[in-house]
Amino acid sequence: MNFRLVFLLSSYLLVFLGFAGLFLTEELSSPYLLLAAVSWAVGASGEMRSGKGALSGFVANIAMLVVFSLTLFSILVLQAPLLQELVHFLLALQAVKLLAPKKARDWLQLYLLSFFSLLAASALSVEISFAAIFVCYLFAAPWVLVLFHLKTATETAGKRPDMDTRLLSWSLFRLVGCLDLVLFSLTVFFFISFPRVSAGLFGNAWATGSAVTGFSDRLALGEVAEIQKNNAVAMRVNMDQPGSQGGGDFYWRGVALDLFDGRKWQKSTADSIPLKRQGETYFVGEAVSDSAALIRQRIVLEPSSSAALFTLSGPVAVSGRLPYVMQDPLGNLRGAYPSPFQISYEALSLPEGARQRGGPAGGALQLPKTDSRIIQLSRRITDGIHDELKKARTLESYLKQNYRYSLKDLPVGEGDPLAVFLFEAGQGNCEYFASALAVMLRSLGIPSRVVNGYLGGEWNPYGEYYLIRQSNAHSWVEAYFADNKGWVTLDPTPPTLRRSRSNIFSSFTHFIDFLRMRWHRHVISFNFSDQYEIFTAIKRPDIWFGAGLRDFSLKELRSWFSASLSSWMGWAIVLGCLAIGWNWLRKIKRRGEIRAQGLTYQATERYRRLLALLRKRRLIKEAGETADEFSRRAESVGISLVKEFTSLYQQARFSGHGELTDGLKKMDQILMQLRK
């Protein structure tokens, strides 16, 4: 195996891993990423073909000076974000180094730049993809540094490393493997033991990702349709009372809006008041006497441009590490500010069918300039019905049965969009259905408002939680009925077309999402409380093995051992087979190494075996004793085969010619005879 080729491939792989970490953050400018990728490809191909850089040393120095000057100009004059420009400077400097001629110090500088790239990626990313890059880098770095040390040491001794085939030996792989295991163990130990700065510290500081539209204080008709085309994850919810595992019709309430101008909805008031707090728990309204009937939700909300907190309808309490929680007269819950990172919290909500508390406020009866046909249609459908709730249910059923759900060809042109939806198009998405129902209810004197949030979700069997995507975005209606003492949820959208659809890759995607959630829970969100739990568990074995450890009797131990015997035997057989296979592979590897070293080396190895065999017969070659002298001494004690073996060895070792292959076979035969 060519040492130079292995060294170059390993070095460029290390540089690539640092670059890949920055690429996966999706936070850097495309020109810089393209520059880094092209320079890596050109530099690697040129180095492997000719060993020369694409740029001369003088040009490389000028390029580095230009890069440094441009970075200072961007920071001081253009007032560009500091971290962004430093990372761009890092990529540009790395590109120059990849294209320049490389001496020992240049390789070290490239390794250092790749390490800084990895550090920058850790500050910019909280995704599990970084974990794969980090682990690969953790195992690749010791290997590359060992190869670099061998290269420089060999060159210092005046030799060419690519000509010394003994450098890439099996012992080298074992050494690096041990270093990798030690380094990985230390990394895990330090991660658990030392206080951590939140991962993704600078996060999306300059990110320009799309906002989570539809969940602000206003909503234009047709906006939810754009969200529904996005399949990105919005939140994950674990519930104590999940109902069906298919993602039933759970309404995840986000923002309620009550003012409508015919085309868009908004809140009538922005006044919000902080909720009463006890520890980490915020209470929504008055306490509930029967807390056992409440539905507990543990919610992990993805980064969002909105401060809205999503819960099931009828929340009574919210808890978590939130600076504060506020509520407006419409019942909307919001945090302190939009979070660029994941946030986790728990919510307690009233069971399904319970009425959301509070009376109508703001513009619950406000009507814009409305097409008279809409009012006439509302009265005609509910003619003869006196109960307001029954009127609302009748209108809800009418819209479900007579109109089609669609994300295309929405009535957003000139004129009244609701009139076009009801009397011309006959199709629309959820906010058209919700807006039409709200306007029709208000025309009958029933207070109502439109609510934006999410509907349903995919059940993830691996993590046992609901996965709610942006495509689950939904609008519905809350109507107030004084006789029923609360707000009632109404949804006029056809149910068969609004549910989440699974595909053939759903099982795989659910598993990947489960890993991402575990990554965020146990790595990104790892904190002092988690550290305390780990150290407490170490001090208390009953936490690991159960509270009944103290009462574990000898009889129970015998029973447990008997039940586990078959499993133990199975594992013993598996481990035994692995050990045998490992030993067999080592022998094959050793033989392959010996063959690869050449006939001279093979002959030397066989002579060492001879000495080992004779040592067992207490015939030891003395220091300063030549091979011929030793063979004569062996012949004097009756071992005549040693003289013939020595002759074959000397021919292979020193002559460099002859029938060496046959000689090696003859040496093997002599060794077999001596063993007998």
What is the secondary structure topology, with strand pairs?
Blueprint: H1 3-25, H2 30-49, H3 57-76, H4 82-99, H5 104-124, H6 129-156, H7 170-193, E1 218-220, H8 223-228, E2 233-239, E3 251-257, E4 259-260, E5 264-266, E6 273-274, E7 276-278, E8 281-283, E9 295-301, E10 311-312, E11 315-319, E12 326-327, E13 333-334, E14 343-349, H9 372-381, H10 388-402, E15 404-405, H11 417-425, E16 427-428, H12 430-443, E17 448-455, E18 458-460, E19 465-469, E20 473-481, E21 486-490, H13 506-524, H14 528-539, H15 541-545, H16 554-596, H17 599-616, H18 627-636, H19 641-655, H20 660-675
Parallel strand pairs: 15-16
Antiparallel strand pairs: 1-5, 2-9, 2-19, 3-10, 3-17, 4-5, 6-12, 7-8, 8-11, 9-14, 11-14, 12-13, 17-20, 18-19, 20-21
Give your account of this protein's structure:
51% of the residues lie in helices and 13% in strands. By secondary structure, the protein is of the alpha+beta class. The chain folds into four domains: 3-193, no CATH class; 218-499, no CATH class; 508-549; 598-675, no CATH class. The strands form five sheets. It has an eight-stranded antiparallel beta sheet, with helices on one face. Strand 12 (326-327) and strand 13 form a beta hairpin. 30% of the residues are buried. Mean pLDDT is 78; it is low at 198-214, 497-501 and 547-552.
